[in-house]
Every structure is written in structure tokens, then in C-alpha cells.
Amino acid sequence: MNTILRLCLLFTSFSAVHSFFGLQLSSSSSSSLTNLSLSTPATDNNMVVEEVKVGDTVPSITLQEGLPEFGKKDVNISELIAGKKAIIFGVPGAFTPGCSKSHVPSFIHAKEELKEKGIDIIICIATNDLYVMKAWGEHSGGTDAGIVFLSDGSAELTQALGLVMETPMMPRTKRFTLIAENGIVTQYFSSAEESSNTWAPAVLAKL
């Protein structure tokens, strides 16, 4: 009888010890996983790029230009403006009201004055595809006025300039204008306050 009692007590003690250490192991594992989860750094894929400013270099990025008969060619923006006094202006979208009625026409009407002020080339960019940009240039009269319409279809240049405007359809370019001399930004015109701050009259006032 005493032997049976001792065995029962021993079994009870062993079970208690096993349960205790099993619980401790479980808690320790849970705690470790929790700590691991808390200590794992969060990753942010949305890299914030500072908005372009005077003194910056226009990045070496390849855009596309539409050609007749549905042709196309790659155009490196930094190579295109090298050695030139250039105006680059960006718009949210081809054929959109503000861009078609005000922004592009302002540079068409001012082309001769801008040339007299030393501007060698005027470039319009948007994230529309190259065929849309070509059609818009022709329809607006901008191409006939000598404005070069380039597609930033991947928004690579727009992103590099810190001017991405996210929309449900696609990333677009915030409205802007800049003057670059031999690839260096010498004047920057933002639309943050007024869209008209990026139109040709505002640019002429700074030349």
C-alpha cells in the first residue's frame, strides 16, 4: 500500500514538473516569436523623392517620342538639352482641359519671345504613351510651333523630379515648368499655389 502511494505521489510530482516546464517552454517560444515580430523592421517601398529645385541636374533618363507611321525613338532628356538653354514643362495629361486650353497654348504664343530670351528648345512631358503625346502635339499646334512632345510613360523622369501625382488610373506628372542651362536647373516654377505660375508669362517674367 505504501509502495502504491509512493508511486502515485512520484507520478503526480513528475506530471507537475513536466507541465510546468512545458508551459514555460511554450511561453518562452511565444515570447520569442512576439519579440521577433516586434523587432522586425517594417519595409516601406514608397520612397519619397525630394521635389526638384534650382541647382539640381536634370537626370539622364530615356523618354520616347512618337514618329510618323507609328514609329518611335528613344530620347535621353539630358543629352537632348546638353549645351542648350531649355524649357521643360510637365502636365498631368494630354488632351486634358487645363493643359490644352492654357499651358501648351501659353508656350505656343510666347515661342518667339522665348527664343529672343535665349531659349533653344521647349519640351513638354506627360505620362501618356508616345502615340497620345504625338497626337496631342499635332492637334494642339504645339508640334508646328517647335515644341517637342515626349512620353514619360513609366513616370521615371516624373519620379526622379519628385513630381508624381498618384491617381486611380495611373501616375501622372504634377504641373511644373523649369529652365535648365546645360542640364542644370536655373529656374523652377511650381503649380502648388496657382497653375498659372507655370505658364509662359510667368517664365518670361524671370528671363
From TrEMBL:
This protein's UniProt keywords: Antioxidant, Oxidoreductase, Peroxidase, Redox-active center, Signal
Enumerate the Gene3D superfamilies for this protein: Glutaredoxin (3.40.30.10)
Q: Does the keyword Signal apply?
A: yes
One record GO biological process: hydrogen peroxide catabolic process
Q: Which InterPro entries match?
A: PRX5-like, Redoxin, Thioredoxin-like_sf, Thioredoxin_domain
- What GO CC terms are in its UniProt record? cytoplasm
Query: Is Ligase one of the keywords UniProt gives this record?
Result: no
A Pfam family that this protein carries is: Redoxin
Among the GO molecular function terms of this UniProt record, one is:
thioredoxin peroxidase activity
Query: Which PROSITE patterns did the record assign?
Result: THIOREDOXIN_2
Catalytic residues, per the record, are C99 (cysteine sulfenic acid (-soh) intermediate)
- Extent of the signal sequence: 1-19
* Domain (Thioredoxin) ranges: 52-207
The role this protein plays is: Thiol-specific peroxidase that catalyzes the reduction of hydrogen peroxide and organic hydroperoxides to water and alcohols, respectively. Plays a role in cell protection against oxidative stress by detoxifying peroxides.
Q: Which family does it belong to?
A: Belongs to the peroxiredoxin family. Prx5 subfamily.
PANTHER family recorded: PEROXIREDOXIN, PEROXIREDOXIN-5, MITOCHONDRIAL
Q: What is this protein called?
A: Putative peroxiredoxin
Q: Per the UniProt entry, what species is this protein from, by scientific name?
A: Fragilariopsis cylindrus CCMP1102
Query: What gene is it encoded by?
Result: PRX_3
